[in-house]
Amino acid sequence: MTKDFVRIGADIGGTFTDVVLETPSRRLTTKILTTHEAPERALLEAAMGLLANARLAPHQVTLMVHGTTLATNALIERRGAHTGLLTTEGFRDVIEIGTEGRFDQYDLGIEKPPALVARRFRQGVPERLDVDGRVLLPLDPSAVLDAARFFATEGVESLAIAFLHSYANPAHERQAADLIRSVLPDIEISLSSEVSPEMREYERFSTTIANAYVQPIVAGYLGRLKSNLDDLDFHCPLFLMLSSGGLTTVETAMKFPVRLVESGPAGGAIFAAGIAQQRGIDKMLAFDMGGTTAKICFIDQGRPYRSQSFEVARVHRFRKGSGLPLRIPVLEMVEIGAGGGSIAGVDSIGRLTVGPRSAGSEPGPACYNRGGEYPTVTDADLLLGRIDANAFAGGQMSLDAVAAATAMRTLGDRHSDVGILALGICDVVDETMASAARVHAVEQGTTADQRTMVAFGGAAPLHAARVAEKLGIAEVIVPENAGVGSAVGFLHAPIAYELSQTFHLLIGASDFGALNDVLADMAATAHAVVARGAPGVERRETRTAFARFRGQGYEVAIDVPVRPLVPGDGRLLLKTFEDIYGAQYGGMAPKLGVEILTWRVLVSTTVPAPSPSAETNDGRTIAPTEWRSVLDVSSGKTQVYAVARRRDLRPGDQISGPVLIVEDGTTTVVTPAFNLTVDASGNLVLTRR
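Now predict its structure.
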């Protein structure tokens, strides 16, 4: 990093677009409504506004990092490209058969997510490989050409090619792609051997189809964005945030857009991990609540939990197995349809519900006065007195409490007490988030109550204290620039690329010769991708294997030395597996052999760890001069809250709740159960009494 850097981080969410500008001496932020018909418009408008405030020109920007929900929204809303599937004859129904598992075995009317590709657009062709990649039946070129002509006639825009066992030998997929292009030279093609070269055909097929489904949309968007940046005289590198917490080039993002599905939340996890390292927090719960969704991620020793798979577009909230599986590296988190724009309603038996449907930015909550008619969490926060109607989003928007109250009464009648309804909405959404955290903790084999919560996103500081009370959490941290935390996290993420490959190996019964060749090829590819994005920058490599006892269905991750493996390393891998397996499951299966199925190689640039936060004891006890009546959720009664401006607070300052800490991007609600101090880095630290 040069001493005269100028960097921009931009996070396009479902409701707001957050943009951060950093220089060596300052950080400027802004939050504007997302322009869904052309997402790049809000990004460019916000970036140019920040540059004008900083008296800088576009050509002075040295780096831009971007995260977007475009791929996620296209999958959830089913508005991707017209996609086809070319697969092994007899296997076109794999994506509907799935694993034959039921996420709710007692629901006779169970609803599974519909396939992204209708059955008539799935074409099977004669070909077959065995599990080791040996050819059992050569690919039939005439059948491939017939399928290509069918796709051309039907106007298919993007094609997924996924053959059985192609992870072991990609030759048939590559041959088919060449034949398809001879008929359809402009079609986008996704090969499963490139997108997800791993065993388990359902997950591999699903991931490849999802990549093909969003590829034209993401490629078109990124192409427009790059063109607009060039026209505006931005000449800096543009990187995209990956779901795994690393950055990649525009070219890689265009080829593998499925890896962008959780890019925004991943930036938030990186932001929270930096706070954990800064304050030396061993166990953290990251709580990110924006306008559309809330995200929860566990962070241990400054490292977010990671996963090798993810589900998108779940048809049942929180129910594992009810979404489309994606086999991609991601930061492990749970996403909840509970944001500031989440719409409240009453179900068929009269219960108050909140989300997952959101008002988004168009029209937005009723209080935005942009045509919204339904009550949302933001409307409730405004009516409770938590939000200053004239200072929302740094004063860029004025909120209409009358419109919020009118929308709120749709939940009852015209005589309903809008305050009670608002209390109900906030309590329901707080409990929803707390419940999701509890379930996620159980799934991860951990607990939530002994953790420190870090709250960021525009809505999280409004709700964090109450959610912490429900979870039994004693400390909550609201960092500086919490309202745009994900965009800040983008600027502190490494440039990285991760590859996976299925290669079966029985520990103790194989040598490592062929495996070393596979790992070396994977490492060379990953290093080349990272080097293109960060030439000359120091890089580090990590290797991971996914091992299990023979006959089991799923694996655990173990570390692998970053060097050619030698015969004695079998004992090392076995010992590592036994330690991790025993810790996770509490027992062993000693009579079974141990096999490794999949290998991963991650290459990333090195990022300096944040400086530890110094202690400060020279603060002052704040005597508030401003007050506001707030309908308190925990007591259900109106209480007088002190009001303080975050810009007026200094390290070491102390104030007892109840108090509202107001800043441009959000408001922190310090309930009566907490005291507040400001640490040496400017973080707000809420401590349970």
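The longest helix spans residues 201-231.
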